[in-house]
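My current task is to audit a protein record that another person submitted. Please read both lines and tell me whether the tokens look consistent with the sequence. Do not assume that whoever made the record got everything right. I have pasted the whole thing underneath without changing anything:

===
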Amino acid sequence: MAAVAGVSASDAVNASKANVPAKPKTILVLGDSLSAEYGLKRGSGWVALLEQKLQTEKIAAAVVNASISGDTTSGGRSRLAALLAQHQPSHVIIELGANDALRGLALQLSQDNLNQMTNMAQKAGARVLLIGMQVPPNYGRDYNARFAAMFADVAKAHKVALVPFLLKGVADVPDSTRLFQADRIHPREEAHPAILGNVWPELRKLLK
């Protein structure tokens, strides 16, 4: 490359690189009914609110919501490879595990699946945000503690970001039933801004 007068060849290369637009980010959300707008009108769940937030913050990123109501960590693991190949996400949000507990699946199986999904996403070049959950008190103190620790252990092992509890400020507040649908499992529409409020601070760090 011939240098322009007063400009070195390296400066010219750097300038040309600076003019190349950054590749748009793609955020893949792999979740269950808590992310799939179960019982809500379309566009009112936290994932839809995330899309609006990205626009407000002027962050160029597309959101692919691959969440399925009732999905488990095993289901997410079986689907993830194809989703990574199809969408080539820059970021992957894994929000799975609650249905494993509801079905009484072994915690070790759930943890192995979370480990595998995190590893798959990282190998595909994506940054991972793991979403933790908690279970109702009737599961017992020991199970509750081990279930919550599972997400922290996976995040630590892979050095990925973690939201400790997706429903913080929703399920753990006085008179929380007012924020849930009749099944007392799925949050109402008015709870979803708070859910996004739990996710956004950690995701924003990864998007910078």
